Amino acid sequence: MDQFKTFDSEISTKSKPWYKQYNKVYVWMLVLVGTFVFGFAFGQFNAQKSNTNQIITKTSGTLASIFGNNSNIDTKLFQEVWDEIHSQYIYKNKIDDAQLFYGSIYGLVAALDDPHSTFMDPQVAQEYQNDLKGEFSGIGAEIGRKNNFLVVIASLPGAPAEKAGLKSGDRILAIDGQDTTGFSADKAVSLIRGEKGTKVVLSILSKGENQTKDVTIVREKITASSVIYKNENNIAIVRITGFNDDTSSAFASVAQKILNQNPKGLIIDLRSNPGGYLKTAVDLAGYWLEPGQVVVREEFADKSQNIEHKADTKTSLRKFKTVVLVNEGSASASEILAGALKDYNISQVVGMKTYGKGSVQSLVSLRSNSALKITVAKWLTPLGKSIEPDGITPDVVVDFTEEEYNNDQDPQLDKAIELIEAK
């Protein structure tokens, strides 16, 4: 499962994330101990919060046996820090033991320095599952991290984020006044989400600007349609906003319409599509590839686990001249589809270089309804090109400026139509 879906989902300053500001040894001591406490004792945590110190103390012996004679790891450090917080912190009435505990787990995963791996507490894990169903309450924006900044990957069509003017590449510097430096995308999403009708204020720094602006957005119930179809001047235009639960079936219906209408060409618009399920990308690629052709190669640390995902879709759209549109917000599954069609010279790719998210995340269900999203593999195009970090370079590079956007112009779509019309 490709889980770049951070609704995916913070101003970053030039300072390092919090977990890089301290000696790594101590970070590991803190977060590793916290994780093992979680594994061995969390079942008792909520029911016996008053016994937390006793639980941690009992766990220290187990940790010591795991770390062996490593003199750099003091397994009692977690206990010591925990005690100091509860005895010294001035706002003791605000201490939430569960938040402290989950925070140690977040820190463990954050220390991997992998923007796509994250721990999810029960609330975030549930929201994440809802995202893949295309149902959530919020602003309808896809969020990711790039170059240590939290950025808008995409605003869903017609969603509050799009109405407020958020665009791909906008940096989110603060949420309701809270500095998002070091935030994971999932944590940001948990703050941006909220009840329908409530407001959230995002501090935004747009590309090409040097001043931030506060954007107030009213949250709404979002039901995202992942496949949008229209036929203009006998050219079929299919906008795919995500590779979600419903995308394969929705695209199958659209494919049948295209076959019935027999247009002179087909444009697949993957701009600002942050990705979704790997299987969905493979399903869609099969509409152009021959059965058995490789769509994407999945490469693991253990090479014996490597997988070639192959096309097997029966319906074919290969007879139609096809152009794929991409931009900086096209990520993960979008890059798989665009990369496959480009490698086989089935389609020309138009727009700007894609995001470059070519790693594979596994979603591991944990106790207490929490979850771990962790990078386990990377993707290669059929010809062996790594998608991350370089992305997919278009055959025809066409920029889309803010001025053109504000004037309702779309030079990328215009170029795609031009290529379809060309003999």
Structural summary, described in words:
The protein is an alpha+beta fold and 423 residues long. It folds into 3 domains: 18-115, no CATH class; 120-223, Roll (Pdz3 Domain); 227-421, Alpha-Beta Complex (2-enoyl-CoA Hydratase, Chain A, domain 1). 32% of the residues lie in helices and 24% in strands. The chain contains 12 helices and 19 strands. The chain has helices at 24-45, 52-67, 77-88, 97-110, 122-132, 160-163, 185-192, 247-261, 278-285, 333-343, 402-406, 411-421, and strands spanning 118-120, 135-138, 141-146, 149-155, 171-175, 178-179, 199-205, 213-218, 220-223, 227-232, 235-240, 265-269, 294-300, 307-310, 322-326, 347-351, 359-365, 371-380, 396-397. The strands form 5 sheets. A 6-stranded mixed sheet has the order 10-11-12-15-16-19, with helices on both faces. Strands 1, 13, 14, 17 and 18 form a 5-stranded antiparallel sheet that branches. A 4-stranded antiparallel sheet has the order 6-5-7-8, covered by helices on one side. Helix 1 crosses helix 2 (52-67), helix 5 crosses helix 7 (185-192) and helix 9 runs parallel beside helix 10. The longest helix has 22 residues, at 24-45. The chain is globular, with a radius of gyration of 23 Å.
List the helices and strands and how they pair.
Layout: H1 24-45, H2 52-67, H3 77-88, H4 97-110, E1 118-120, H5 122-132, E2 135-138, E3 141-146, E4 149-155, H6 160-163, E5 171-175, E6 178-179, H7 185-192, E7 199-205, E8 213-218, E9 220-223, E10 227-232, E11 235-240, H8 247-261, E12 265-269, H9 278-285, E13 294-300, E14 307-310, E15 322-326, H10 333-343, E16 347-351, E17 359-365, E18 371-380, E19 396-397, H11 402-406, H12 411-421
Parallel strand pairs: 11-12, 12-15, 15-16, 16-19
Antiparallel strand pairs: 1-18, 2-9, 3-4, 5-6, 5-7, 7-8, 10-11, 13-14, 13-18, 17-18
Helix pairs in contact: 1-2, 1-4, 5-7, 9-10
